[in-house]
Design brief:
InterPro entries: GAF (IPR003018), GAF-like_dom_sf (IPR029016), Phosphatase_reg/MetRdx (IPR051330). This protein has about 160 residues and is α+β, with helices and mostly antiparallel strands. It has one domain: Beta-Lactamase, CATH 3.30.450. Strands 3-2-1-6-5-4 form a 6-stranded antiparallel β-sheet, sandwiched between helices. A hairpin with a 2-residue loop joins strand 5 and strand 6. It is globular.
Length: about 160
């Protein structure tokens, strides 16, 4: 298991993701513990890109419950369909939000969050959790983020038993 990341900050964001994803896969392969894998993934994403907040919300009944994360304290529970995370869960699709203030029903866990991407994690076509990534910059996420994070969350779906 590698305990450090090898990253080249001179690469484009898409190239950085291509460099990072195999490292996360190597870090999580053979580790059966969901919490450990989610925690290391959140840490790796934040370390690689300096995002304001990176974390997971796990589906528990009719709520998303805060899981492993990196960043300031966060909302603990989010109802189905509420905020960006709850909407991503309800729609079972990635939501890329360039300005969180413009998103109807946005839940402001931190006033410093300006843009957000939320990617659902599926197991047997059911949403098990969502990856939530926040930036303190407007319009900080694009289709490179979406494509890479969706690929990573396909891997994450395998961690759920």
């Amino acid at each position: 298991m590698a305990e450090t990341l090898s990253l080249d900050a001179t690469l484009t964001k898409a190239e950085q993701y291509r460099q990072l994803l195999p490292q996360i896969e190597a870090l999580t392969t053979g580790e059966p513990d969901l919490t450990a894998n989610l925690a290391n993934t959140a840490a790796a994403l934040r370390q690689a890109f300096g995002f304001f907040w990176v974390g997971f919300y796990l589906v528990k009944g009719d709520e998303l419950v805060l899981g492993p994360f990196q960043g300031p304290i966060a909302c603990t529970r989010i109802r189905h369909g509420k905020g960006v995370c709850g909407a991503s869960w309800a729609r079972a699709e990635t939501l890329l939000v360039p300005d969180v203030e413009a998103f109807p029903g946005h839940i402001a866990c931190s006033s410093e969050s300006k843009s957000e991407i939320v990617v659902p994690i599926f197991k047997n076509e059911q949403v098990m959790a969502v990856l939530d990534v926040d930036s303190d910059q407007l319009n900080d996420f694009d289709h490179d983020d979406q494509a890479a994070l969706e690929q990573l969350m396909q891997l994450a779906g395998q961690w759920f038993v």
